[in-house]
Design a protein that fits this description.
This protein is an alpha/beta fold. It starts with a strand and ends in a 10-residue tail after the last helix.
Length: 443
């Protein structure tokens, strides 16, 4: 059901050579880019008409308008299962607790007497958030996108989610209910690359969507390709690929827990990655044995879980020691990394590359997906080696404000002129000389 990679016996290679030995899903965004390009440009030129046409083509629904009526949001919330509403409200509450603490404050540094640099943090004006609606429906992703944007102070928030034939062309009602709970009333029934194009270019008319400064949220390969296409025109969070879990475990780990956690990510998608890194062959055997009955007892077995576990992106990786295991998980840079070892907190503190780290047996990834308070929009495909998950900072821009007096400028002018001339940019120096009668102030 799941393959093995045995890295025991020899010294582990460094850097890219080690990464090349590890399992990873094939996710060719560049190839998808060529297919989404004409879709994006069609939305650019035809706007809402193109969105309606693509809803028919890709989602099998006939839309009269793309924007979801506010009444539909209210109805969805009124009809929401009370238990689901309570769970969403608790998820929102915990996410707000964590994300509210992330807000940065303005700071002024006095560089010299009379010379200061202030860094202020300004939220982007408008964001377009994407909530997937393919194999599964993710109201939790609505929470994870909206809460940090709101806590950052973003004034204009819009959300897009694919139209659903089952619900008369509206996004899934649980998505709409989550929007209502969060106070987001600008919602569009649009999915895939065309939704990203709608936010990037904007559309006109009474049903139109003003352009956004930034687009965030997980999605399929078409969403990822559209984000790449528009990078530079809009800000993005990340090109999200298939979801991943890596578990670093030793002989103290419970194989029942480890198997359950691997399966929990495999049920997302046939390309989802489930990786166990362990120095215990006994644990590897026990986990492999435990996978069989747990998979058989759950849902989405043939279309998602079995292909995900059997795919090249999933494996049990055997190493000689936890030190080697740490090197492996750092090279892998998992979206979600669980540490199920003795003294798990100490090992977790040494991890450099992960989207989010889950410490010990009582912090499974599923907790982070919904109610830990952390954000579940995280870097995939090894991008955790250089990128972070979604947070309040994602929606903030740092702006430096430089304020110097005449004397403070005079003090440093000779250095500025010297550096300008060293770079063969004499006009840079002249901009200072002009302020002092074209003479460099003596020091």
């Amino acid at each position: 059901m799941i393959s093995r990679i045995d890295l025991r016996g020899d010294a582990l290679p460094e850097g890219g050579a080690l990464r090349d030995l590890l399992p990873r899903a094939e996710f060719d965004v560049e190839a998808a880019l060529e297919k989404v390009r004409p879709i994006c440009e069609d939305v650019h030129h035809r706007g809402t008409a193109a969105l309606i046409e693509y809803a028919q083509k890709f989602d099998g629904v006939t839309l009269e308008q793309v924007r979801v009526p506010v009444e539909a949001l209210k109805t969805a919330l009124d009809e929401l299962d009370p238990a689901v509403r309570a769970a969403l409200e608790e998820s929102i509450r915990r996410a707000r607790i964590v994300h509210r603490e992330q807000r940065r404050t303005e700071h002024t540094t006095q560089v010299v007497p009379g010379g200061t640099v202030t860094e202020k943090w300004v939220p982007v004006e408008r964001v377009g958030l994407y909530a997937p609606g393919g194999r599964s429906v993710y109201p939790s992703s609505v929470v994870m996108n909206v809460v940090p944007a709101q806590e950052a102070g973003v004034e204009s928030i819009a959300l897009a989610s694919p139209p659903q034939k089952e619900f008369g062309g509206l996004p899934h009602p649980t998505i709409l209910a989550a929007c209502a709970l969060l106070g987001v009333d600008e919602v569009y029934a649009a999915g895939g690359a065309q939704a990203v194009a709608m936010f990037a270019y904007g559309t006109s008319g009474p049903d139109g969507c003003p352009p956004a400064n930034m687009v965030t949220g997980p999605g399929n390969i078409w969403v990822a390709a559209a984000k790449r296409y528009f990078t530079g025109r809009i800000g993005i969070d990340t090109e999200a690929g298939p979801t991943e879990i890596a578990v670093l475990a030793d002989s103290t780990a419970d194989p029942v827990h480890v198997a359950a956690d691997l399966i929990s990510q495999a049920e997302h998608d046939p390309l989802a990655a489930a990786v166990l890194v362990t120095d215990s062959a006994e644990l590897a055997d026990a986990v492999e044995k435990e996978l069989e009955p747990q998979v058989a007892a759950t849902k989405h077995v043939e279309d998602r879980i079995k292909p995900a576990l059997a795919g090249k992106q999933s494996a049990i990786v055997l190493v000689d020691s936890l030190e080697d295991g740490l090197k492996v998980v750092d090279a892998y840079g998992a979206e979600h990394l669980e540490i199920q070892t003795a003294d798990a907190a100490a090992w977790a503190a040494r991890v450099r590359n992960a989207g989010a780290i889950f410490v010990g047996p009582w912090a499974p990834v599923s907790l982070g997906d919904y109610c830990a308070g952390s954000n579940h929009v995280l870097p995939t495909g090894g991008c955790a080696c250089h990128s972070s998950g979604l947070s309040v900072q994602s929606f903030l821009r740092g702006i430096h404000i430089v304020d110097y007096t005449r004397d403070a400028l005079a003090e440093v002018t000779h250095h500025v002129v010297t550096l300008a001339e060293a770079e063969d940019l004499p006009a840079h120096g002249a901009a200072l000389k002009a302020r002092f009668g074209w003479k460099v102030p003596t020091q």
